């Protein structure tokens, strides 16, 4: 692999090349050595190739990030560990169904948003599948007799269908169905972006609204195209198909670089139940200070490794790291540190004396020295100084 | 504009008005993002407020595998972008101060954004605008310097001369320099 890598400018360019190669070969096979290629779709094919390269570049850079790399590689390792296989498979399945297919968490954010997102995502998935299937020639319809079509997938003849059957209608209208779904979803989203004050707090036009406009222009021109040749005998059809093609090209080229890039990020969500979920309860990390379990050993190890790789030094004097403490204790440590009350009497893990001599707090009573874990005898002999010790 | 969030922990009286105000802020979805906690409940009823530091180089963003935490041009570290956050909570554990909160239902992280819609326009954040004891303030850079200086003087008058080892006793915390420009 290393040798291969050396023959390219960079890892990313190698991956891009490989992706293009695979695409080209798949076209070669699927179209029976370019015998059945649909030249009308050439523009789409080229922009789809750009889309694939863009996606590869963005995915590569995303995976090189220290944090992503760490989490993704741990998940990969867990996925192929025998003992964890059952749990991992379950985790992937749950994420796939709940998170990606049904998108339950978005419905929890609101029914409106759930419907809106489900419409957009499934509409896009259907349309993308059909578009790529047809442009790369992965799928085609052969007329075997005047009444029957055969669906050919990767040059392998599969099922037959009646040319005017119900199933055929659904297949022909797949793109229209997808387009209508996206149209509904994207309009709902656009309305929300315009009318809700809450989303305006952090909303940016070029990031949040532009992708909606692009999606809408693709669907609207596509639907107009359908209307033109079903009801108007293909009037202006030629110009409209050009306009539609332009919008699709813009969308495909935009996809890897804008908001829509969250789609390929999502599958990483499987890493959470797979590697970090506390439900497994194999090894639960307890706070160094209050002894309460607050996380998972693997996760804290990852966090610490990621921080260290990026030169964050969050170590304390006693060698522990801030992430070894639960969040509550961490907040308290910060406040106490700022007030220089963290360990006024010696033991940093002992109780806090809120009476620091500068600010008398209302309820604090004077306590005996040993309450704070200080050995008076030793101090007296001068063998141990009772200077504040920080952890 | 060059405003600063100025915290004086020991001024906190534990009324939790800041938390109530936080729940009302735009886009906060009726959930508070700040903390009011006891220093040591078994010792006294002293509380302290806690907010995000809006770090220059935020550990939370660095440990996020989804690259979901964005920093605005003013330097405010925003809550996770909802479409990207995968809900791993690395940010909560990576943050040195334990700030980011997590909504398990909606699968998204949310954290103090200094009421971005308000501070962007130079309006004080919700918590600072309601704090009755001035434990949380949103003030000018100069005012902050003045307060710190006065605090040191007070201690000197009281006969508490800061030494190398304890000079930080005499300086209250400040953070969240809102912008770098036109100091
Ligand atoms: S959440 Fe924590 S790490 Fe992130 S900016 Fe705030 S204080 Fe810094
Ligand atoms: S919980 Fe979300 S914002 Fe926090 S680290 Fe994970 S993906 Fe990033």
TrEMBL record, chain A:
Keywords of the record: Membrane, Transmembrane, Transmembrane helix
Top-level division of the source organism's lineage: Bacteria
Protein name: MFS transporter
Membrane-spanning ranges: 12-30, 42-64, 118-139, 170-191, 212-232, 238-257
SUPFAM superfamilies: Respiratory nitrate reductase 1 gamma chain (SSF103501)
Automatic annotation (TrEMBL), chain B:
UniProt name for this protein: 4Fe-4S dicluster domain-containing protein
UniProt cross-references to InterPro entries, sorted A to Z: 4Fe4S_Fe-S-bd, 4Fe4S_Fe_S_CS, ET_IronSulfur_Cluster-Binding
Residue intervals passing through the bilayer: none
This protein's record includes keyword Electron transport: yes
Domain 4Fe-4S ferredoxin-type: 3-33, 43-74, 76-105
Upper taxonomic lineage: Bacteria, Bacillati, Bacillota, Bacilli, Bacillales
Alphabetical keyword list: 4Fe-4S, Electron transport, Iron, Iron-sulfur, Metal-binding, Repeat, Transport
A GO molecular-function descriptor: metal ion binding
Pfam families from the UniProt entry: Fer4_11, Fer4_2
